[in-house]
Each structure stands twice: as C-alpha cells, then as structure tokens.
C-alpha cells in the first residue's frame, strides 16, 4: 500500500519537473520598418537587464527574458493570468538586415531593438549637377 | 528524467531559482482554482493576485507605463485600476505587427473581504505594478488556549 502511494507521488514530481523548462510566455511585439531599418518593441514586464538575453545571428533573432517577481513567503495564488516567469520569442531576419549592428535598450519592461539595413540597402540621395 | 536531489546552486543564483520555482508552483501548477468572476482573463493587462494571512499582493503586468497615469481605488473589497498607455507609433513607417496594447485600460478585481483600504503600498518596477494591501487582524489564524 505505502509503496504505491510513494510511486504516485514520485510520478507527480517527475511530471512537474519535465514541464517546467518548456513553460514560457510569448511576449506581445510591435515591429515596424522605415527606409533605414527595422524597429522591434516587446513587452517584457518583470524583466530587468540582467535577466534578458538577446541573440542575433545571420538568420535569427531570439529574445529570452526571465522575470523576477518579488513575493512574500507562503503566498497562495488567488488568480493568475501570468503563469510563467520566462518570455521567449524568435524571428527570422531577412538578408538586408545587419544583425551585427543591432542596438537594444530596456526601460520599464519594454525592450526596444533597432536593426539597421546593410549599407548597400540604405537609401541614397542622388545629387543632380547643373550642366 | 528524475528530479535533481543534490544541487550545486549557491547564494544569489539559488535564490533566483527559488523565486522562479515558487512563482511556477503558485501560478503555473495544475491545481488552479476557478477564475474570479470579475476578471476577464483575456483583457489587458494581465494580473496576478496572491494572498497570505497578513496581506494581499496584486501584480499588474503593464510594461512601459507612466505611473502618473494610473488611478487606483479600493472601495469595500473591490480594487479598480484605471490607466493609460499611449504608444508612440510612427504612421509613416510600415507596420508588420501591432500586438502591444495601446490606449486606456481598466481592471476590476474582487479582493478578500477583510482587506484594509487604508493600508496599501504601490510600487512600479520593471513594468510590473505591485500592490500590497494589508488584511485586518481578524483574518489571521489565532491560537486558542484551552482553559
């Protein structure tokens, strides 16, 4: 009897342990483009600079943020919309964007990313000379 | 895979892990009670409410907000939060995604009956509004001595 009880308890713990790493929130983003590059804004409430990890390579941009929420001991949940402490989202980058020159800032839980277009894709003004 | 029994985590990192775990246990586990009638779960902004015997903690996830534009009132045990977030969007730019909430919002939450509306602390940090509302003495568990 006691043996089967222990087993089921063990199962529950194992299942929770497995599920934890996968649980993350997909943050809301705005993305817009002007002639010089692309701007991305993401809502990451609860994330500070230390908890934020942004990876840019040739093809992908990934945002990974960990929220730190101060909570009292022995708190019981009454209601929750937010059920994870991690934000994750990735985007593919088109080739005219220069990921190496990405600039990022974070303020009040809003991430702002600016990715410029490569030099050859920048608009050029053509001077017209008088003949 | 088995849960790890022996950990190598120490100090601050360990503390973060603990918080994260607690948050997951509190807000992520399956034994979730039914949602409160007064809160529509899909509406902006997301909100979490937790209780201890001493206080009620309300977390409002509102990034990029001007706290001056918040209007927080508690009447009896009803908490009403009104606010506004105005995004600066360049109309000349080409928008690919517009998912972030823009404009006014409000949230009405039923709190436990014994909250003390006079004892509220509010803090806005990293895009999270955290309210701590004290509960009245009467709700605390009391040791009864048998004569």
TrEMBL record, chain A:
Region (Disordered): 1-27
Coiled coil region boundaries: none
Gene3D superfamilies noted in UniProt: 2.60.40.790
Domain SHSP per the UniProt entry, residue ranges: 20-131
SUPFAM superfamilies cross-referenced by the UniProt entry: HSP20-like chaperones
Matching Pfam families: HSP20
Annotated CDD domains: ACD_sHsps-like (cd06464)
PANTHER family reported in the protein's UniProt record: HEAT-SHOCK PROTEIN 20 FAMILY MEMBER
UniProt record similarity statement: Belongs to the small heat shock protein (HSP20) family.
Protein name: Hsp20/alpha crystallin family protein
Species this chain originates from: Candidatus Thiodiazotropha taylori
């Amino acid at each position: 009897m006691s043996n089967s009880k222990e087993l089921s308890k063990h199962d529950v713990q194992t299942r929770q342990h497995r599920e934890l790493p996968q649980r993350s929130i997909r943050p809301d983003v705005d993305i817009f483009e002007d002639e010089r590059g692309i701007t991305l804004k993401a809502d990451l409430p609860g994330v500070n600079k230390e908890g934020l990890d942004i990876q840019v390579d040739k093809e992908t941009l990934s945002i990974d943020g960990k929220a730190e929420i101060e909570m009292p001991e022995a708190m019981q949940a009454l209601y929750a919309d937010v059920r994870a402490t991690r934000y994750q989202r990735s985007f593919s980058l088109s080739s005219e964007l220069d990921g190496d020159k990405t600039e990022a800032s974070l303020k009040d839980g809003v991430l702002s990313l600016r990715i410029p277009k490569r030099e050859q894709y920048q608009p050029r003004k053509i001077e017209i000379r008088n003949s | 895979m088995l849960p790890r029994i022996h950990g190598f985590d120490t100090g601050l990192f360990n503390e973060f892990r603990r918080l994260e775990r607690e948050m997951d246990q509190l807000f992520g586990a399956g034994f979730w009670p039914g949602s409160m009638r007064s809160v529509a779960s899909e509406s902006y902004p997301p909100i979490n409410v937790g209780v201890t015997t001493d206080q009620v903690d309300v977390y409002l996830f509102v990034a990029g907000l001007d706290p001056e534009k918040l209007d927080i009132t508690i009447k009896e045990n009803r908490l009403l939060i009104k606010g506004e977030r105005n995004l600066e969007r360049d109309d000349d730019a080409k928008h690919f995604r517009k998912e972030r909430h823009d404009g006014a919002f409000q949230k009405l939450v039923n709190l436990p009956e014994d909250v003390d509306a006079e004892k509220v602390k509010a803090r806005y940090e990293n895009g999270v509004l955290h309210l701590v509302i004290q509960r009245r003495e009467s709700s605390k568990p009391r040791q009864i001595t048998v004569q």
